[in-house]
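quick one, two chains, predict together pls
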Amino acid sequence: MLPTNRHLQTLYWLSLVLILISRYSFAGPPIIQIEIKDHLFYPAIVEVPANTKVKLLIKNLDDTAEEFESYELNREKVIAGNTKGVVFIGPLPVGEYPFFGEFFPKTAQGKVIVKE
Amino acid sequence: MFLSSITLILQEILEGALLISALLAITQRVMSRHWITAGVLAGFMGCYIFGDNIARISEWFDYVGQEVSYATMQFGISLLLALIAFLLRQTTVAAGSKNLLSISCLAAVALSVTREGSEIYVYLQGVMAHPDKISSAFAGSAIGAGIGISIGILLYYLLSGLMTEWLKRIGIVLLALIGGNMCAQAVLLLTQADWISPTGQLWDTSSLLSEYSLVGRLLYALIGYEATPSTAQGMGYLAAALLILICGFVSVKQPPSTAPN
């Protein structure tokens, strides 16, 4: 039997519902909060579990923008002043992954420590 | 502040300068270069609008709006480069195609300037809030911009010295490298936004050539060098580079004129 328009429509709605369920019904990755204040990261050392995707919620409390950057994590994101941003990292093997604020690299330094 | 602003601005300017030089050089014997002014101006407008609204844009799609919009721009550049390679593949570009070629070049430059320029805009805006750092940051930015633009000009003259046939071939390979880089960066941004599932690491050359080194940073801007790229990034790079090479080099056979209607 060839799929009719009606079948396709049902399939479309069904998949949409499934996608929505899968997005909202399961617990998301662990969230870790980092704050930027006076061009410093708080906390400067963040511990995350190994082989797990983690959501970093970065709040910039300064009036000026900062760029969260890490070569080891391959991440780069501008966080405007007095806003927040989300950066997903991992799953990562055990190790240390330094990050810094590219706009104020002398002070804004930190690292992610991945532990078993 | 001085040194860090040099590297920051240099890295951003270099990517745009490289694209502009390559496009200028390979289209110089094909069409006039009116597109460049319009493209850069549109880009300046784009980076002003984007940079000024970065806070709002970042909130889109559950705080990953920045990644999604940058990735869209970079995918767009990759596709435009494929179209440009395709239009340049014939020895003589038809009059009708010239308009399309010129609009594609304009759009690619505008997107690239918006992408790189908006970061510079946000950075300099932040610097303005620290009066003690303004002079060193602006001096560093000027030097970084100067070096980046100089490398672009150097590349333009190196390419311009080539014979037409070689200019086209090398130019298309260069477009493939730039387009691959753009696509790989877009894939990385979407991974960062969790729109693409994270993939394993392709290789680790951080001990051979660190991304902290000047050479590493230059290679990042020039060909998209990463010390620890993900598999998805590598695949994105290859896919876009191959697409551009195919568009630029594979000649399409003329359909037989006696084909039945």
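Chain B has nine helices and no strands.
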